[in-house]
Write a structure and sequence with these properties.
By secondary structure, this protein is mainly alpha-helical. The chain has 32 helices and no strands.
């Protein structure tokens, strides 16, 4: 918003808000301090995202970051003269060169949007988008300029008013596009919104370049600005638009060639290089077009993205990695840009008057009038060409024209360019004139920042209800039917997983009442559904591996009406003997790297054992324990144990975020160190040492504190459950024992599979390692026998519930990606 005065306030802003911290000579600034502000913003962004995702999902993230930046700017303005490092870093970013500012943000924000476009639909709707991006943009810029020239009392020239109109012509529908995908809106509506935004960003930048050059010329500063007549404007327009698109097309072809060369899909490092190539080409295309060819860097980036999508999409080795990387880039840049914009807006906000707020809200209203007027003026054409459109979609496009990243970046660039050009003045009259130009630039940024904030907060929040009101999403009846179908399919999947768990002896003692309470998809289970799941499990399991599920703790909890005859026998005898193996049929997959290391070790050992030096000499057990091949095999076995723990984490059997998993993995590191000294496998003792409070494990203490805290939360949220620290400690110990036994059974199974195939008989060294592992398992089983069976049943039931919920979450992720 505009400052109320142009003299002392402008000088104050020069000292505190734009030219470095007061009371600190600019030459004493440490360049390294500039690194602090961006990452300070990102840390704040993490906290903001957490709060919004958990408690206030409706508020746009970028709008809140802009507001936080506003608070920071106000605080810096009120306490100007502060010398803390955050303030100094903030001021360094606030006065960054305009072209550098655009080069930092725009390529990273625009490339992925262009790459994600549906090329077929883009071609179909090209002429529609072209109308939205050029005729509608220039008319919108002119109408907005009329507001700045005739309605606002700031005394702008026509060229400055057109610069203002060009900046506000750029739309930023990120939040709206996400919403359209979420509710299942028509694809053409999403393309019209996103495609218009991409192209009008480029056209707005072209018009901004032309009219800002004319305004800079009015400032009468040597080498600043350019005289542009009608023919000159046409030349610049064609050079920037056509030239930028051609440069982007060339860089897109270059990117495709690089993607074609980097074709080793299973080489993770090569996949990373592919991702690096995309961001390198995005920024290189912008730089060459903007700095070397005097063309539009924005259109170059957009053309590069669309070209590489059209011809190179199938050459990407790891699409998930590519998508995740660009989402990260977009998040980091949006966080920094909106926070920086809020900071500068906060500087200006501290100097506003009441009339400035009136003009801001008037501008917000008139921009909507202009937007609706333009869309519906061109509606007769837009509804007849390309993908066509309808009145409801046209209404939403009008309302969904948010302002955001590009507008803020351009207005910041304008202000910084003006500020840098008017750094020094030769006479008091010239200083007064320069202060007026600075005032104009501040006013424009204040208006643009305010409009961006209002559209994000108001339009972004109301777009969802408007979609529902216009019935542009999937109809409620259709959505309800789809949701019901997915619910039934999810129930079938979780029931299949549950039946499979019941074939595992670990879960023979599972309490179905507990599981069904934690897994809602199993509520109301009928005998018919259970029989169908058992049949599916038998059908999809190889005959030699098939085991009947143990149903003795399930059938009693099914509705009595399901029993027409006596409950079917499950083929197993009931047994409460805790000495029975808890895990006997786990069939896992060890990472290829671990298998290769094991095979290499075995090959080495085989060559040693067949060496003539050894011949057929049989070594004693004491000699075997300290021999080199035994040490290598134990280390290989430790690697398989690590894979077993990681597999439990992946399957949801072990909480990878908790300290139990941490202590178990740490115990393997401790055991590995002892093995290297010639001692046998002894990771049970190591796991006890890292787990035991008396051993000084602050990590387990923290785990218990977290468990008690979570229990406290449950108590405060309408339950009366209480648990002592000792009880929670006992449950954690049982989990540790179960995880330990599971990992060893897993390792023994794969140790045999990957070793025996080298020979008909297991060698004596391999037999020794397996014997040591079984001894470790026996220790764990002895520990398990010390706990009451009801406590073991509770842990096993909770473990089964955790596994099923984890599988359900993965299934939900899968169907959401379809």
């Amino acid at each position: 918003l505009a400052a109320t005065t142009e003299g002392t306030d402008s000088n104050k802003y020069q000292e505190s808000g734009h030219n470095g911290a007061a009371a600190k000579d600019e030459n004493t600034e440490e360049p390294a301090i500039g690194v602090l502000f961006p990452w300070f913003c990102e840390v704040l962004g993490v906290g903001v995202f957490f709060l919004l995702s958990r408690y206030c999902h409706a508020l746009p993230y970028t709008a809140i970051m802009f507001f936080i930046g506003l608070i920071m700017g106000l605080a810096a303005e009120i306490n100007y003269g502060a010398t803390n490092q955050v303030h100094e870093s903030l001021e360094m970013w606030a006065k960054i060169d305009g072209k550098v500012l655009l080069m930092i943000f725009l390529p990273g924000l625009l490339f992925w949007d262009a790459f994600n476009v549906n090329v077929y639909m883009f071609k179909m709707s090209f002429w529609q988008l072209l109308i939205m991006a050029f005729p509608m943009v220039i008319l919108g810029a002119i109408l907005t300029a009329l507001i700045g020239y005739y309605v606002f009392p700031y005394g702008w020239s026509w060229s400055l008013a057109m610069t203002f109109g060009s900046i506000l012509a750029a739309t930023d529908p990120v939040a709206v596009c996400a919403l359209l995908n979420e509710v299942g809106a028509p694809p053409r509506l999403g393309l019209h919104v996103s495609g218009e935004s991409m192209l009008n960003d480029g056209s707005a930048f072209v018009f901004y370049t032309i009219f800002s050059a004319m305004f800079f010329l009015e400032m009468n500063i040597e080498g600043f600005g350019e005289s542009v007549d009608c023919l000159g404007a046409l030349r610049i327009f064609l050079q920037m638009s056509v030239g930028g698109a051609l440069i982007g097309f060339a860089f897109g072809l270059g990117l495709i060639f690089l993607l074609f060369l980097l074709n080793h899909r299973h080489d993770n490092e090569e996949n990373i290089i592919q991702v690096a190539a995309t961001i390198a080409m995005a920024y290189a295309s912008y730089y060459v077009s903007d700095q070397q060819a005097d063309s539009s860097g924005i259109l170059a980036v957009i053309a590069c993205g669309i070209t590489s999508r059209a011809f190179g999409e199938n050459m990407i080795n790891n699409p998930q990695m590519m998508e995740s990387f660009w989402h990260l880039v977009e998040h980091l840049l949006n966080t920094l840009l909106f926070t920086l914009g809020g900071v500068v807006w906060g500087h200006i906000l501290a100097e506003t008057s009441g009339k400035d707020w009136v003009y801001l809200f008037l501008l917000y209203f008139l921009l909507h009038v202009i937007r609706f007027y333009l869309v519906f003026s061109f509606y007769p054409i837009l509804s007849q060409i390309g993908l066509k459109t309808n009145l409801k979609e046209a209404f939403f496009i009008s309302f969904g024209g948010l302002r955001g990243a590009v507008g803020i970046a351009l207005s910041l660039s304008l202000m910084n360019d003006v500020w840098a050009a008017t750094e020094t003045a030769d006479t008091p009259e010239q200083r007064q004139q320069y202060d007026e130009y600075r005032y104009f630039a501040k006013t424009i940024f204040g208006m643009v920042g305010g409009v961006a904030f209002l559209t994000l907060i108001i339009n972004g929040t109301l777009s969802g209800p408007l979609l529902d009101y216009l019935s542009l999403g999937v109809s409620s009846e259709t959505r309800e039917r789809m949701a019901q179908n997915q619910w039934e399919k999810a129930k079938e999947h979780v029931l299949d997983d549950f039946v499979h768990l019941l074939t595992d002896s670990r879960f023979y003692r599972v309490n179905f009442a507990v599981v069904s309470r934690h897994v809602p998809l199993l509520e109301g289970l009928s005998l018919k559904d259970l029989e169908l799941a058992i049949a599916r499990n038998k059908e999809h399991t190889p005959p030699k591996q098939y085991k009947k599920p143990n149903l003795e703790n399930v059938l009693p909890f099914l509705p009595k009406d399901n029993y027409k005859e006596a409950p079917p026998s499950n083929g197993y005898e009931s047994s409460d003997d805790l000495e029975e193996p808890l895990i006997q049929d786990m069939r896992r997959i060890v990472p290829v790297s671990s298998i290769r290391s094991i095979q290499s070790a075995v090959a080495s050992i085989r060559s040693i054992e067949t060496d003539s030096t050894y011949g057929a000499i049989k070594r004693t057990e004491s000699e075997l324990m300290v021999c080199e091949e035994a040490i290598e095999l134990r280390q290989a076995f430790i690697d398989i144990l690590k894979a077993g723990y990681h597999k439990q984490i992946e399957m949801g059997e072990l909480d990878g975020r908790g300290f139990l998993a941490y202590s178990l993995l740490q115990s393997l590191d401790l055991a590995s160190d002892e093995i290297s000294q010639g001692t046998p496998l002894n990771d049970w003792e190591a796991s006890t040492a890292t787990h035991d409070i008396d051993g000084g494990s602050w990590k387990l203490q923290t785990e218990r504190f977290a468990q008690v805290f979570q229990s406290f939360q449950r108590c405060c949220s309408a339950t009366n459950h209480t648990a002592s620290v000792e009880y929670l400690e006992m449950l954690t110990d049982i989990k540790r024992v179960l995880a330990f036994i599971s990992a060893h059974e897993f390792a023994q199974d794969h140790f045999r599979k990957n070793f025996v195939k080298f020979s008909d008989d297991i060698s004596e060294v391999e037999m020794l390692v397996l014997k040591e592992s079984k001894a470790e398992v026996e220790k764990a089983r002895e520990e398990l026998k010390s706990y009451e069976s009801c406590h073991v049943e509770a842990v096993v039931s909770h473990l089964a519930s955790t596994i099923l919920l984890n599988k359900t979450a993965k299934y939900a992720e899968h169907i959401s990606g379809l």
